Amino acid sequence: MLWSMMEISIDCPHCDSPVHVDGPFLKLECGKCHSGIDFPKDVWKDTLDDVRGDVSGYQKGEGSNSNIFGHFNMRMTYGRLDPYCLKCKRDFDMKDEYTEPATIICPDCGTVAPVFPASDWFREAVPGAALILGAWPEGKSGPESEEKKSQPVAYSCPQCGGSLMINGEERLIQCQYCSTNIYLPDDLWLALHPAKTKNRWFIGFH
Question: What does the radius of gyration of the chain's CA atoms come to, in whole angstroms?
Fold first, then answer.
């Protein structure tokens, strides 16, 4: 199987903040303004149309990067690399075929990576795409995401001093003691919603 490493990010069309595209997703969310972003199948087709052909001509470890201006302002890096553990850099021990979602566990550091057959829409958009590794299926999250979920924090109402437990679900809250509407400050909001780091993922081509 021919493997291509992928790193993609776009500028949020609502606030211009960088949004990491960490897998073949049709829906994204901006980590700053929390706006929903559609990433249509046709854009995937236009973006990845040449990847398989390019990667097949590369030696292992070779790749390219580009800035793409069209539906999104986009930055993309791809290259010919076999899937490996992003934590300790060991190559994964892969089976010849995966017909359903599975996980691979690095024998050296225990890092868990998902692998699953490319969805029907992605196969149509990117001919030859067979497997996706390193990106959790759309709508699901890995154990790292669960670990990073912030715990509620105590915050004092600036009006009455009442102690409030903030869970980060809403930025505009109401004090339960004095009914004052409070807009959470940037440092607290960012602590509850830490910036998402870019994730490297892989496409396996037939």
Answer: 20
Give the tens place of pLDDT for each residue, 103-132. 999 999 999 999 999 999 999 999 999 999
One domain, residues 28 and 110:
yes
The Cα 140–Cα 132 span in angstroms is 14
Per-residue pLDDT of 157-206, as tens digits, reads 999 999 999 988 888 999 999 999 999 998 888 778 766 678 899 999 99
For residue 137, report the phi and psi dihedrals to the nearest 5 degrees: -50, 150
Closest CA to 132 of 117, 113, 112, 111: 117
Residue 199, domain member (yes or no): no
The answer to whether the beta carbons of residues 170 and 155 sit under 8 Å apart is no
Do 124 and 174 reside in the same domain of the chain?
no
Q: Whole domain around residue 131: which residue ranges?
A: 2-146
142 CB contacts (<8 Å, ≥6 apart)? 112, 114, 136
Domain count for the chain: 2
**159 shares a domain with 81:** no
Instruction: State whether 92 and 186 are in the same domain.
Output: no
> CA-based angle 193:199:200, to the nearest 5?
180
- Which residue from 65, 46, 89 is spatially nearest to 4, judged by alpha carbons? 65
pTM of the model: 0.79
**Residue 134 token pair:** 């390193």
Q: Are residues 90 and 46 in the same domain?
A: yes
Euclidean distance between CA atoms 127 and 45, whole angstroms: 9
